[in-house]
Fold this protein.
Amino acid sequence: MKIVDIALDFIFPPTCGICGKLHEGYICKTCYEQIQEYLYKNNSENIFYLLQYKDIVRDKMIDFKFNDKSYLYNMFCEILVKNKNACEFLKSYDIIIPVPIHKKRKKSRGYNQSELIARKISNDFNIPIYTDVLIKQKNNKMQSSLNKSDRIKNIQNVYKVKNEDKIKEKNVLILDDIYTTGLTTKECKRTLENAGAKQVGIMIIAKD
Ligand SMILES: [Zn+2]
């Protein structure tokens, strides 16, 4: 632990992301037991879903993404780190890339929620993170505000790749917060593969 982290823990001691009680970590034992029923069970080869997007998970994800509770990334990371299968899955990747948001949205929200989680994972697992490779070039409408056919049109040519050399022949892991139709992650995957990534996997925090 770095000195600055110890100092921060002293000033802002960790609290459980669910019940809010002071705790040595970011999810207490009782809440962690409660969350077990939301762990996602049937993962396929190149995609890993950590949680099911419903009930308390959904509420916390909405707080994290839309209600300024950026600190909840700590809790989602802790749930991930405690999950042996998730850790095993992460190990086969060379690079982690969070799904980008447009710079205008980042400015208004103040943070990219997927990037906060990806940075902590990058740090904990020693996997480099790149935020200057996959770029969101169009500030499209929120996918969640559209119907299925409009979502397909809305996502086309939204992303581009810069600094291609960084992903050439690499196993790249995309990290996204919520998976609904999968159109966003599929478009990111396609864009990275076209730019020369060897294999692209996906880690989702909560699947709808
Ligand atoms: Zn708790």
